[in-house]
Design goal:
about 50 residues; mainly alpha; 3 helices; globular
Length: about 50
């Protein structure tokens, strides 16, 4: 189960529902905005590889 720190949650909540669901399915810990950016970059990279 993914964890989103309370201080990052407002930024997380601005993402689309689909993107939030992808992040939650990844079973990641997001404690800082940098963690969120890293996970988003991973998702983009995975999307490009599936291309």
């Amino acid at each position: 189960m993914s964890y989103i720190a309370p201080q990052v949650k407002p930024k997380f909540d601005t993402l689309s529902v689909g993107l939030r669901n992808i992040i939650l399915e990844k079973d990641v810990q997001i404690n800082t905005i940098h963690d969120l950016i890293r996970v988003l970059e991973e998702i983009v990279k995975e999307g490009e590889e599936e291309g």
